[in-house]
């Protein structure tokens, strides 16, 4: 977002400074995954929400770096658990440096993030981030438990993504509210915006596993199925497809089998599940937009509104 481009440059300075360590491998792996780019949505959200609420203190740069470190740590751990080989169009860190290095450097980034939290000297900020990291970990375990479970329903699916993905979005926008010292009602509105946006983001991400292009998404099409993940497109397809087609999807999920991937993708498309999934994401994006009614009207608030609207057009 152009509105926070200068702020993000300050965040990058904080990231570079706080990645400094006497252990070369830590720096190498950390810089490898951070240099891979990505949307940096979580720090952008914190900066955009800070702007919407009129907070201009330097602590927003520190906490934006904190949420990026936490997110990066989860990526390192996720790719090991999922045995992923491709992220953002390049080999994953575990593919390049090995599982052990990825896990341990992820631990370093978590601990460095907690060191940086102390700079805010605010117990409420510590509480928000400590809860967020705990809920994210619970979401990771829930997802692991659900691997290969074709009976997962939409409510259970949403529970996982609101814990695993949306919680850090929510924490990012709530942190901005705490920094700005707004009312409890406004803080909750900021948190609702983050949670709804994060939920919509993950739903679209899961959708792209079945209608995206690997050259655009930067990950292998069908990875979710290979990992035995029961995502919303598959849940909705099993509900609306003929019994034989639903049985084929169930078996593929249970076995983590992508041999029938072309046929399954055809079933998902013909069942209407992709449009239904996009509709579910649109409902979450609209919930995020409605939460902005509690905020002041300014350029940054308008940018947050546009971000929610543009999310639905995401193709990568």
State the main characteristics.
two-stranded antiparallel ribbon; mainly alpha; single chain; 17 helices; Farnesyl Diphosphate Synthase
Tell me the layout of helices and strands.
Blueprint: H1 5-18, H2 24-35, H3 41-53, H4 59-82, E1 86-87, E2 90-91, H5 93-97, H6 99-117, H7 123-146, H8 154-164, H9 166-180, H10 184-211, H11 214-217, H12 223-226, H13 232-240, H14 243-255, H15 261-270, H16 273-291, H17 299-311
Antiparallel strand pairs: 1-2
Helix pairs in contact: 1-4, 2-6, 3-4, 3-9, 3-17, 4-6, 4-7, 4-9, 7-8, 7-9, 9-10, 10-16, 13-14, 13-16, 16-17
Organism: Xenophilus arseniciresistens
GO biological process, one term: isoprenoid biosynthetic process
Function: Supplies octaprenyl diphosphate, the precursor for the side chain of the isoprenoid quinones ubiquinone and menaquinone.
Structural summary, described in words:
With 316 residues, the chain is mainly α. The protein has one domain (2-311): Farnesyl Diphosphate Synthase (Orthogonal Bundle), CATH 1.10.600.10. Helix content is 75%, strand content 1%. It is built from 17 helices and two strands. The protein has helices at residues 5-18, 24-35, 41-53, 59-82, 93-97, 99-117, 123-146, 154-164, 166-180, 184-211, 214-217, 223-226, 232-240, 243-255, 261-270, 273-291, 299-311, and strands at 86-87, 90-91. The chain has a two-stranded antiparallel ribbon. β1 and β2 form a beta hairpin. α1 packs across α4 and α7 (123-146) runs antiparallel to α9. The longest helix has 28 residues, at 184-211. It is globular, with a radius of gyration of 19 Å.
């Amino acid at each position: 977002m152009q509105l926070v481009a200068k702020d993000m440059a300050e965040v990058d300075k904080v990231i570079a400074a706080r990645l400094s360590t006497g252990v070369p491998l830590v720096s190498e792996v950390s810089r490898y995954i951070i240099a891979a780019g990505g949307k940096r949505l979580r720090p952008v959200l914190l900066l955009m929400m800070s702007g919407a609420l009129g907070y201009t203190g330097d602590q927003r740069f520190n906490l934006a770096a904190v949420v990026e470190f936490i997110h990066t740590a989860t990526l390192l751990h996720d790719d090991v658990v999922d045995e992923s080989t491709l992220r953002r169009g390049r080999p994953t860190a575990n593919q390049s440096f090995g599982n052990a290095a990825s896990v341990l450097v992820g631990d370093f980034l978590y601990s460095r993030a907690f060191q940086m939290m102390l700079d805010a000297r605010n117990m409420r900020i510590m509480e928000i981030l400590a809860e967020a990291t705990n809920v994210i970990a619970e979401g990771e375990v829930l997802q692991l438990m659900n691997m290969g479970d074709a009976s997962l329903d939409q409510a259970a699916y949403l529970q996982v993504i609101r814990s695993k993905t949306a919680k850090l979005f929510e924490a990012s926008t709530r942190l901005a509210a705490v920094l700005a010292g707004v009312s409890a009602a406004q803080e909750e509105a900021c948190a609702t915006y983050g949670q709804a946006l994060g939920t919509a983001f993950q739903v679209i991400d899961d959708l792209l596993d079945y209608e995206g292009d690997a050259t655009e998404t930067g990950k292998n099409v069908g990875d979710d199925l290979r990992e035995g993940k029961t995502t919303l497109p598959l849940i909705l397809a099993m509900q609306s497809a003929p019994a034989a087609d639903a049985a084929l999807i169930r078996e593929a999920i249970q076995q983590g089998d992508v041999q029938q991937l072309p046929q399954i993708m055809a079933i998902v498309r013909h069942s209407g599940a992709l449009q239904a999934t996009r509709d579910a994401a649109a409902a979450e994006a609209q919930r995020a937009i409605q939460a902005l009614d509690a905020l002041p009207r300014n350029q940054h608030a308008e940018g947050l509104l546009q971000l929610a609207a543009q999310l639905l057009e995401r193709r990568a």
